[in-house]
Specification:
Elements (H helix, E strand, L loop, with lengths): L1 E4 L17 H8 L3 E4 L1 H4 L9 E4 L2 E4 L6 H18 L3 E4 L10 E3 L7 E3 L3 H8 L3 E4 L4
Parallel strand pairs: 1-2, 1-5, 5-8
Antiparallel strand pairs: 3-4, 6-7
Protein name: DUF523 domain-containing protein
Pfam family, one: 2-thiour_desulf
InterPro entries: 2-thiour_desulf
């Protein structure tokens, strides 16, 4: 079983209320091979919501609010679902402060990328889950 970012499965859960559908991910979900999750929604954040980026060890939105606790709670809940479903692999939305893997935005809201992982991706990596992004498909 594969855990996937829900926005890649066509769920309108991104910060702006949109999805980022990926046909390969949608097919995996449709055939019962993948479980879609949105760590940000699982952490209690609404959709739509202000954009957020990682600044140091905190997640800050464009309004200056520290929403790290919601991101952490959502990452933990998504990991719990991952374990319950027996997922050993993940396909995550690139550059996201939750799901980004390898490269994330630098916290200036300027579109600049830096090396790093989102909170959910980091938690998955620390727990031995193989991670890909939609860019790897």
């Amino acid at each position: 079983m594969i855990i996937v970012s829900a926005c890649l499965a066509g769920v309108r859960c991104r910060y702006n209320g949109d999805a980022f559908p990926n046909e390969k991910v949608i097919e995996l979900v449709a055939t019962g091979k993948a479980l879609p999750v949105c760590p940000e929604q699982l952490g209690g954040l609404p959709t739509p919501r202000p954009p957020a980026e990682i600044v140091g060890e905190r997640v800050i939105n464009t309004q200056g609010a520290d929403i790290t606790p919601q991101f952490q709670a959502g990452a933990r809940e998504a990991l719990r679902l991952c374990r319950l479903a027996g997922c050993t692999k993940a396909i995550l939305k690139s550059r996201s402060p939750s799901c980004g893997y390898g490269r994330i935005y630098d916290g200036t809201f300027s579109g600049t990328l830096i090396p790093g992982d989102g909170l959910f991706a980091r938690l998955l990596r620390e727990n031995g889950v193989e991670i890909l992004t939609e860019e790897d498909l």
